[in-house]
Amino acid sequence: MPKSSRKSLKEINTFWQENCTCELKNTATRAVFGDGNPKAQVVFIGEAPGKKEDETGVPFVGAAGKFLSEMLASIKMSRSDIYITNIVKYRPPNNRDPLPSEKESCKEWLHEELNAIAPKLIVFLGRHSMNHFFPELKISEAHGKLIAQNIPGINTKLFLPLYHPAAALYNGSMREVLIKDFKKILLILKKIEEK
């Protein structure tokens, strides 16, 4: 599809904010749109907005977001280089896991968002975002391993599952694994450039 006929992120967000049927709309303060570079080579997908995100309308601004920014800096990137979004666009009450029906309600919104950006690599932050696309995988086995696969309705074909930064905040060994896995992002992008 030529770029000119592709919907802009603003159009996508405006449409879905009006038309999304997600039940979480009833309890959340606002929709939390994706944030960052609309031409990013890498898109990070988290699970759902938390309390801080619900207040500010920006994804990954709490403690996990700060850790993510540190990890980006460790590979000489910043939030302005990437795009970050969530599986669901509204905060679940008390930060509970989003329900399958809630994920399903936000699915088209997410997929349109991804196709508007057309990144070279999609990075899953945690099992919820990974299982949205690959329900059979376990994050403990799949983290740090590149997945090359066609997914109907998604233009991107390369995926990298990582542990969620929030989980790594409270677990030192997981933190080390996440930092090590994170460094693979640059290697993958370099290989893509060489093709």
Structure description:
- With 195 residues, the protein is α/β, with parallel strands linked by helices.
- It has one domain (8-194): Uracil-DNA Glycosylase, subunit E (3-Layer(aba) Sandwich), CATH 3.40.470.
- Helices cover 44% and strands 12% of the residues.
- A 6-stranded mixed beta sheet has the order 1-3-2-4-6-5, with helices on both faces.
- Helix 1 (9-19) packs antiparallel against helix 4 (100-117).
- The longest helix has 18 residues, at 100-117.
- It is globular, with a radius of gyration of 16 Å.
- The chain starts with 8 loop residues before the first helix and ends with a helix.
> By helix and strand content, what is the structural category?
alpha/beta
The fold-level CATH name is Uracil-DNA Glycosylase, subunit E
Q: Which strand-content bin applies to the residues?
A: 5-15%
CATH homologous superfamily heading: Uracil-DNA glycosylase-like domain
Which features would summarize this protein structure in a list?
single chain; 195 residues; alpha/beta; Uracil-DNA Glycosylase, subunit E; 6-stranded mixed β-sheet; 9 helices; 6 strands; disordered N terminus
What secondary-structure arrangement, pairings included, does this model have?
Elements: H1 9-19, E1 35-36, E2 42-46, H2 51-56, H3 63-74, E3 83-86, H4 100-117, E4 121-125, H5 127-133, H6 139-142, E5 147-148, E6 158-162, H7 165-169, H8 172-182, H9 184-194
Parallel strand pairs: 2-3, 2-4, 4-6
Antiparallel strand pairs: 1-3, 5-6
Helix pairs in contact: 1-4
